[in-house]
Amino acid sequence: MLERHELEAFLTLAEELHFGRTAERLHVSTARVSQTIAKLERRIGVPLFNRTSRRVELSLVGRQLYEEIRPAWSLITDAFERAVDAGRGLTGLLRVAFTGPAAGQLLVGAAQAFRTRHPDCQVRNKEAHLPEVLPWLRSGEVDLALTSHPMHEEGIVMGPVLVREARMLAVPTGHPFARRATVSVEDLARVTVLQLPETLPESLREDRAPRRTPTGRPIALGPSATTFNETLTLVGAGEGVFAVGAHTRRYFARPDIVYVPFEDAVPVDWGLVWPADGATARVRAFSETALSLVQAPAPNP
């Protein structure tokens, strides 16, 4: 099997037909090039170059070897350069998924800021239902996603929290809680709480539908739905209640649902997630841009 330095020495000498210029291109000594070619010829059993004091030419075997190796070597080097560009470069295409209109609005702002910083890299946004996020990340359909936290899952990286909003409880309009100014986490022991699909990480499912209250009282868990709108439809039909972020009241106003603030619940967090083996320079740069965008001070009125 040929080693890389042998391939480079042979191909470069076949193109330059001069030991000195070959050594300059490879940043090695002329003696190193000569030794490498001589060793290669001993392994093959015939000369690859015909040498005189005045010129260097490919032998018949050398020319055949060059013509067969050169295209394959070009493919290998091109593929390697593309891999380096994907891992370290800030060009090309970055595909970002988002869940819900509020996340989409934030993502548009982050993408605009990212393109200003890195004009050679395009950003393509794509809406996903929550259960689609992890399959899309694992299959490579998208590079990262702006979605609900926490997403504690093997092979998945959670970026910094970008949005932290008040937690509210979606209840049917006819429910007793709908007439209250606030609810407590302990009140969940008195109702049925809808669940997220089992395909989602347990950390996120527990965050939205805990099995017990802080004092240990059991919580009755109801059915799950595939999409957020399906979940809200179940709420409106009286199948159960569901914890949501405060933005839901604005983006998903419905006549059959009332959103009641929690008085003692932790906030709902949103942020970027991406595959651990897909943490390219583009992904890291986008995460940094999104974080700087939400941390920037608001302009003075």
From TrEMBL:
SUPFAM superfamilies: Periplasmic binding protein-like II, Winged helix' DNA-binding domain. Gene3D superfamilies: Periplasmic binding protein-like II, Winged helix-like DNA-binding domain superfamily/Winged helix DNA-binding domain. Residues 1-59 form the HTH lysR-type domain. Keywords: DNA-binding, Transcription, Transcription regulation. The keyword Transport does not apply. Pfam families: HTH_1, LysR_substrate. Belongs to the LysR transcriptional regulatory family. This is LysR family transcriptional regulator. It comes from Streptomyces oryzae. The lineage of its organism: Bacteria, Bacillati, Actinomycetota, Actinomycetes, Kitasatosporales.
